[in-house]
Amino acid sequence: MKPEKIKEIIDKDKVVLFMKGTREFPQCGFSKQVITILENLEVKYQEYDVLANPELRENIKEFSDWPTIPQLYVNGEFIGGSDIVYDMYRDDELDSVFSNNEES
What we know:
Elements lengths: L2 H10 L2 E5 L9 H12 L5 E4 L4 H11 L6 E4 L2 E4 L1 H9 L3 H5 L6
Helix pairs in contact: 2-4
């Protein structure tokens, strides 16, 4: 998947999660952790299953220059993977990230 297409996907929705599996059936604990956090915060998000698209799975890592999945984007900006998202959630820093996202 070309970088332009990935950028289009990221820009389409305010909150985008690239993950393994789906929100209903996550395929790794890290993806499940991020889903749980987003749902606890009642954030609307669009997920993309990288296992269903191997080209996306590899190219999203290059696009973000981040080696692991899941990857969370908010308002077109890369936030991080599961550890960063968890740390921000634990430290009450995610509220400010989503505060510009309330209308979605």
